[in-house]
Specification:
By secondary structure, this protein is of the alpha+beta class. The chain folds into three domains: 2-131, no CATH class; 133-190, no CATH class; 192-248, no CATH class. The chain has seven helices and six strands. The strands form two sheets. Strands 1-2-3 form a three-stranded antiparallel sheet, with helices on one face. Helix 2 (9-42) runs antiparallel to helix 3 (46-76).
C-alpha cells in the first residue's frame, strides 16, 4: 500500500491541501463567531447593543455557517483516498461530484435555517435587550415608562415623529430617585414578525397608511401593510393611534 501511495503524488498533494482548507475554514468559522460575540460583549449600552445585534447577528451567523459548509466541502474531498488509489481516478471524480451535490444541499438547508428559523432567536434576544432595566449614571435601576407617561418626557419633535412616522417608537427610561431620563429610538421597519401564513419570522412592514388622523380629542387609525420575504404573503393590520398631545 505504501508503494501504491507513493505512486499517486497528485492524490496525496490534493488531500494535503484539502486538510489545510478544512482546518482553515473551521478556524475562520470559530473566529467569526467569537468576534461577533466579543463585539456584543464589549458594547455596554443596551440600546447600542440592541442596534448592533439587530443589524449584524443574522449576517455573522451566516458567515459562520458558510465557513463550516466550505470546511465540509474540503474535508469530504480528502476521505476515501485509498479507494481512489486502488480503484482508479474515476473514484476521484465521483468524490468531487458527491461533494458538490451534498454541499449544494447543505448550502440551501443552512440558508433556509438562517433566513427562516434564526430570526426567531434573534427577535427573542432583541426583546430581552430592549426590556432589560437600564442603570442610571448614579447606579440606580431605571423604570420604563408606559405610553401614557412617555409624552411628558418627549419633546414636540419626537412626539410629532411618532405621530407621523408610526414605525418609529420611543422608549423612555426614568431614574425616579434623581430624575435622570434616557430616551431610546427604535425603528419597526427593521424588525421581522411572525407571518400568519407560513409561521416564520419573515414578515416586515413595507408601507403605512393613516385611515383616520388622530387629533387632540379623538384617536386615529393606522393601517400597517406587511409582506413576508419567504412566502410573499401580504396582509394589513389596523392599529389604533393615541390622541395627540396638546403640545404637538
Amino acid at each position: 500500500m505504501i508503494a501504491e501511495i507513493q505512486e499517486s503524488p497528485f492524490v496525496i498533494a490534493w488531500d494535503h491541501y484539502m486538510d489545510i482548507g478544512t482546518m482553515t475554514c473551521v478556524a475562520i468559522s470559530i473566529l467569526v463567531f467569537l468576534y461577533h460575540e466579543f463585539r456584543v460583549m464589549m458594547i455596554k449600552d443596551y440600546k447600542e447593543k440592541y442596534d448592533y445585534v439587530n443589524l449584524n447577528e443574522v449576517r455573522f451567523f451566516w458567515y459562520t455557517a458558510f465557513a463550516l459548509i466550505v470546511a465540509f466541502a474540503f474535508y469530504s474531498n480528502s476521505i476515501f483516498t485509498e479507494r481512489i488509489i486502488t480503484k482508479g481516478m474515476l473514484w476521484f471524480y465521483v468524490r468531487i461530484f458527491l461533494t458538490v451535490s451534498f454541499v449544494t444541499i447543505g448550502y440551501f438547508v443552512f440558508y433556509s435555517v438562517v433566513r427562516i428559523y434564526y430570526p426567531r432567536y434573534v427577535e427573542k434576544r432583541l426583546v430581552k435587550l430592549r426590556s432589560t432595566p437600564r442603570i442610571s449614571p448614579d447606579g440606580n435601576i431605571m423604570r420604563k415608562l408606559n405610553e401614557d407617561e412617555e409624552d411628558a418626557h418627549l419633546d414636540a419633535a419626537q412626539i410629532a415623529e411618532e405621530a407621523e412616522i408610526h414605525s418609529v417608537d420611543y422608549d423612555v427610561w426614568l431614574d425616579e430617585k434623581t430624575g435622570y431620563k434616557k430616551i431610546e429610538k427604535y425603528d419597526s421597519y427593521l424588525h421581522a414578525e411572525k407571518c400568519e401564513e407560513c409561521g416564520f419570522f419573515t414578515s416586515k412592514i413595507y408601507k403605512e397608511e393613516i385611515e383616520v388622523k388622530p387629533t387632540t380629542s379623538e384617536p386615529g387609525l393606522l393601517l400597517k401593510h406587511y409582506k413576508c420575504s419567504y412566502c410573499n404573503h401580504r396582509e394589513a393590520k389596523e392599529v389604533k393611534l393615541a390622541k395627540l398631545s396638546d403640545n404637538v
